[in-house]
Specification:
- It is a single chain.
- The chain has 485 residues and is an alpha/beta fold.
- The chain has helices spanning 20-26, 38-49, 67-71, 83-96, 109-124, 154-170, 190-194, 207-217, 221-224, 273-281, 299-310, 324-327, 329-344, 354-367, 377-388, 400-406, 414-425, 433-439, 445-457, and strands spanning 4-9, 15-19, 28-31, 54-59, 74-77, 100-103, 134-138, 176-182, 198-201, 234-239, 243-251, 462-465, 471-475, 480-481.
- It binds adenosine-5'-diphosphate (ADP) and magnesium ion.
- The site of magnesium ion has 3 residues, from helix 2.
Amino acid sequence: MTAGIEIGMDGAGLPVRIDIEELLATRLLVQGNSGSGKSHLLRRLLEESASLVQQVVIDPEGDFVTLADAFGHLVIDAGDYNEREIARMGARVREHRASIVLTLESLELEAQMSCAAAFLSALFDAPRDHWYPALVVVDEAQMFAPAAAGDVSDAVRRTSLAAMTNLMCRGRKRGLAGVIATQRLAKLAKNVAAEASNFLMGRTFLDIDMARAADLLGMERRQAEQIRDLERGRFLALGPAICRRPVAVKIGAVRTSTRMGTHSLLPMPVSEPDNMRTMLFAEMEPDAPPPRSEPRPAPVAADDLIRQLAAADGVDSAHPREDAAQVDPQATEGVVVDVLEAMLADPDSAFQPAALLYQDFTVRCRMHRLTRPPLDLAAFRRRFAMAQAGMLDPADSRWAESLALADRLPEEMLAPFLLLARAAMDGEPCPDDDALGRAYATSSPGRVRRMVEYMEKQGVVVARTDFGGRRSIGIPGLGLSTTAE
Ligand SMILES: Nc1ncnc2c1ncn2[C@@H]1O[C@H](COP(=O)(O)OP(=O)(O)O)[C@@H](O)[C@H]1O
Ligand SMILES: [Mg+2]
């Protein structure tokens, strides 16, 4: 066995091993009721194989973030990014072979599904050059590949299911090896479960799940009764990467704990987390990007920087000229407006991460001979959001009330809210989902709907749909409403 790890002990106290190379080719399904020890098992597998293979963990409960301290996994907190950023990170994870934990804990179910789907699809769609082998561990997989329609929208369920199906059915060629855990086999889409050839079955109460587990293990029903009596942390194992006949395994101890307060027994094996973080999060950090003269440590960040700098052709950044515009606030403001207008003319701009937009902004300002960026990142984001709604002059008193109302909303809702406010002020039809989505940097109608719902909950807007299905949005704080669209 080339790259084996010890997962636990059998009844005789002999080690039970998993061949990681074989696992990459044959995938793994773990089933067991809540509390049976699935997450512990996944953790054992991840810890033992951390030095052998790249690992990607889709973590609905934020259980696995503790791998970061001991093994150097990067934690991506899904709540901090939009869908486009998540997809970009997925692509970079492939490119840089980073081991990561995508924690979805802070999201609601539908958002968890959309986010996991965007991320998994990006892993799957990575260019052939980046098809390195990786374990893709999905805990609570029935959430992402449900067997039946639930209370999420059909579109979201389909997207999520498709991403999971791709992972399990077509991922192998691309180097992706699905390792999925579920509380109930009956709740997991059959085609997703069917593609795993290795199984670890833990305590299972319900007959329907036990029957399916018995089928997968190739056991007689009566024999499978033992699954009901398994203790926590004990699983029946079968599959080409583990053993040819079902073996009862007691899963071994783990080194990290479920939550904070980990015991960091292991130094990071090879990669340098800081370096990796820079590579993955380059241009996405909420902080200002590094100054342009500083060499970027990672090849990809450098590539992006080169692309940015190419736009500034002809500007001698080593010897920038101070210009009158730099000290004349009115001239500076004129440049800011020109630059914002030019950026908005690019239809893709709405979906770029803020840090990338900011970099573009500073480069364009330099082309206008403003050597120091006239706005910091936070101020830029605000101005950009305002400009997206057509508000180029921040001093325009017409907008004062709308801006005050927007203070009750999260920053990323500023642009869509101002768009609604403008339509209301101008007595125009309600912007459609596309327009609101662009302002909110999402192409997901579900996200747009939830955003409007959120605004309603805050009492900032009142949405109304007439019998013809046309929507209008009222803004009580302004005493105005859009017309119906
Ligand atoms: N093999 C094991 N050895 C020691 N403790 C375990 C083992 N398996 C599970 N546990 C403990 O049992 C509890 C439930 O396990 P967990 O993995 O969270 O279950 P599940 O994910 O199936 O709901 C946790 O506190 C975990 O630490
Ligand atoms: Mg669990």
